[in-house]
Amino acid sequence: MKLRLDLRLSQKLIMTPQLQQAIKLLQLSRLELQQSLQQHLMENPLLDELVAETEEAEETATTEREQPDTTTTVSGEARGEADDKPAESGENAEEFSASSWEDYFDTDMRRGETEYSSSSKEEFPSYEQTVAKSTSLEDHLVWQLSLSGLPDREKAIGRLIIGNLDDDGYLRMPMEELVAGTEYSVAEAESVLQDVQGFDPNGVAARDLSECLLLQLKFLGRSHIGSLGARPGVLKGSVLEAIVLHHLKDLEKKQYSRIAKTLNISVEDVFEATRIIEGLEPKPGRPFSNTQNYAIVPDVFVVKNEGVWEVLLNDDGLPRMRISPYYKQLMASGQSGSAETKAYLDDKLRAAQWVIRSIEQRNKTIVKVVSSIVKFQEGFFEQGIQHLKPLVLKQVAEDIGMHESTISRVTANKYMYCPQGMLELKFFFNAGLQRADQPTDMLSSLTVREMIRQMVAAEDARKPLKDEEIAAKLRTQQVLIARRTVAKYRAEDNIPSATQRRKFF
Asked: Could you confirm whether domain 432-501 is CATH 1.10.10.60?
């Protein structure tokens, strides 16, 4: 056996931890980036947040008041009167100067405070912090339960039922599962459930949609039904109950003739019953939903300055980091301590420098990508969505000399504020449809979807446009599109079909 030694040269792409960190920071959203930077500040002692220097208050020039002429001779009587009156010194006069009044009105004056300090100005809480917390559905029902006069045992069952209601106000859990592991029986729970179903809002604690609507019809009364336009004696409870119990699917599909034939009533009576049912609330817990709306902070601003579109990075709210001057001086002086401590500080210094460089590179990459998007979609920024062009990641990647994966990471979960509003960067990337008059010119799919929405909004509600008719109208506007594509775009925009959009009354 013969042993031989060979030398081979090869290249490999190795993802270092620093490179992985830079890629991770690139695809983070604004909120995630803020949280990540705060974590770096907490874990790395060599990172320091750069706080903006507070502006010094402008010094107000005080005018020297003319001193009274001491050489002027006054009579003894006048001098005596002057001695009896309190003399207004220059210090007392300065209390009423313009600068003092500005300081007085600029102080943080709050009710109950007796001393005011212009040097310590505390900010008042935001408006959101002063708004009272809305009452939840559970609190509203528990309050009614406490006033119901039920025995303690039934109140305990009522709290058990209320605690298992979902956000819509429905009891989705079977009674057997609800009382499992407790000392209560199913019959007791059913009895208390009827009491809870009598609480406000009407239809609460129902087990399905039919029961919810029936509970609300129960509280309406004949007089209220008559006030909605129904003829007395025509719409009896049995008709409404029959529609709610057995024909909700037909009602959803607007098959009024089928309902009238099955119930042996006229179509006009079905219309009147439908009008009453449509006035009911299918989700009783909706008014008590505690959903919070969070404002989206844009990552970049696109503004037009002197006829040129500019991209401005929004770094407001993000911590500005630097290397701690204390540790920098400590390491430069050579007083960092033992070899282990020095190695630890060197490692943290390299990590801090890499984080700062990664943030700078991230900002430059975002600005570069958005600038390329603005260049491709200049017609959109100038004239609106009708001039939005088809765009793919490859075009931007070739324009700025980056990989498509990098462009995908940059545009993920990032927003732009422009004259057209707040838009996600992914909004500008869409497929294209061919034009009949200009085969080489492609039309953006978002533009076509906007055209479909305008057609649906302007249609006759009694004769809504079908997908074939929408496709035919688009072809008259030189847009080559199939019926299936129209149906696809309509479904993506949550536009019902022509049958569902049709109105009979």
From this structure: yes
